[in-house]
Amino acid sequence: MEKIANPKQKEKKKNSLSIGMLLLKVRTFVVLAILLIVFSFIAPNFTNKESIILIIKHVALYGLLGIGMTLVIITGGIDLSVGSIVGLSAMISGGLIYEGLALPIFGVKIYFNVPIIIILTLISGVIIGLINGIVITKFKVTPFITTLGMLYIARGLALLRSNGATFPDLTGKAELGNTGFQFLGQGTILGIPVAIWIFAIISLIAAFLLKKTPLGWHIYATGGNENAAKLSGILTDRVKLFVYAFSGLCAAFVGLIAASQLTAAQPATGESWELSAIAASVLGGTSMMGGVGTIGGAVIGALIIGVINDGMVMSGVSEFWQQVIRGSVIIIAVIVDQVQRNMEAKMALEQKNA
């Protein structure tokens, strides 16, 4: 004879699942609060004004990369090339300021003003992103392999730009009309660093795009079920081209800001930053399976990564252990994401059977 489930037991089980889901959804805020409390005790200078400003500047860089990465991951892809695009963008902008653009055919060297240099650098980032998108959509190469290859290509081009050397002293010269580059990474508007303004503006644009425009819904649909999206008339290839181009744009912004902050451009800039971008995105609730993610979550994830990285440095944690901890954070974030997806499926099944 079939055993009839106790209604009270069913209700208790349902409440437990609901509480568990709530805790999983607010996990990023809980983790961020715990980290802030812990590091404020073990790192004496963690709450200083200078330290806070430094952390926020770093968060802006991780956050910009995380925003672009979030859009890519929502479509079911991945972009491993963003760190190398950061380095190449820094070298492009640094080279244009430090030595200009030589035109041997005409025997001249052109020096651009800073706004033009910024535009040219951003265009280069978009072009690299588009190349990633074209290879993925037209030649059907997996995103992992495509962007892994571009990681090496972009880093190699960054090294070739100066034969591995650094472009120092990017303050420019007044007589050449290329001064003011350092304002991008060191300047402030209304007392807030320019990098934070850029991060905030791009965050708002990306959030609006995802939530309030047809393109945003197409991005979610492409990652949720690409075949169904195609059948409903969505041009999924164009969607992918857009997200990879946007990711390249965000990485180019980071390269510009990083070079401006240092007033120097180094080929190694951005090494392994793609890992921080992925971590920020996943910690913010973006599913590696695609179809799920928010810009707000990526911002919180970037805050967590920034606090962890700078908090460990200020606490004197060994660089070797820092790498172990960063890797562990990524793995744990993916495990928690999988647990959340399983619980959501279980709750949906419970509701269906109720």
UniProtKB/TrEMBL annotation:
Keyword check for Transmembrane: yes
Q: Which keywords does the record carry? A: Cell inner membrane, Cell membrane, Membrane, Transmembrane, Transmembrane helix, Transport
What main location does UniProt list? membrane
One Pfam annotation reads BPD_transp_2
Q: Which chain regions cross the lipid bilayer?
A: 21-46, 52-73, 80-98, 110-134, 141-160, 189-210, 241-262, 282-308
Q: Which CDD domains does the UniProt entry name for this protein? A: TM_PBP1_transp_AraH_like
- Give the record's membrane topology: Multi-pass membrane protein
Where on the tree of life does the source sit, at the highest rank? Bacteria
| N-terminal signal peptide | none
Query: What InterPro entries does the record tag this protein with?
Result: ABC_transp_permease
Q: Where in the cell is it found?
A: Cell membrane
Protein known as: Ribose/xylose/arabinose/galactoside ABC-type transport system permease subunit
